Amino acid sequence: MGQSNYLKAQIPGNLLSFFMKLSHNLERSEPMMRIADSYRKIRQHIDLLAKEAGRDPAEIILLAVSKTHPWEQLKSAYDAGCRDFGESKIQEALPKIENAPHDIRWHMIGTLQKNKVRKAVGSFSLIHSVDNFELARKISEVSEEMGVITHLL
Hints:
Elements: H1 13-26, H2 31-52, E1 64-65, H3 71-79, E2 84-87, H4 90-99, E3 105-108, H5 117-120, E4 126-127, H6 133-146, E5 151-152
Parallel strand pairs: 1-2, 2-3, 3-4, 4-5
Helix pairs in contact: 1-2, 2-3
């Protein structure tokens, strides 16, 4: 995984307003179109705001939270250009990871238990939910055993 910047900030009022309008307008669409259209519109709006702020839009990653959605629905976001997907449960994520294209960067955004670290390491590009030293140490040990680098937040 390259040196990407993961933007963590409050949503500005104009972007929040945009999301609310987008959500309202897309409620009547077909699920596959809603996902692809939502991704495209949000990405375009982020790109516009980034340029206005003097930032490179490529520095900002739009993470599609894919939990509870089957890969068949997520594929439309992938086809629209999304390459970063977030999952909160290992058991739900692994079948998607196996069936999805290999250029996707999967993010573990849910709580990770120490007994599931072996399943997570090597499957996720970034683990967002490391909340204690023991978990970080376990991830480090398993990553070393497997010969992989695991990125953490």
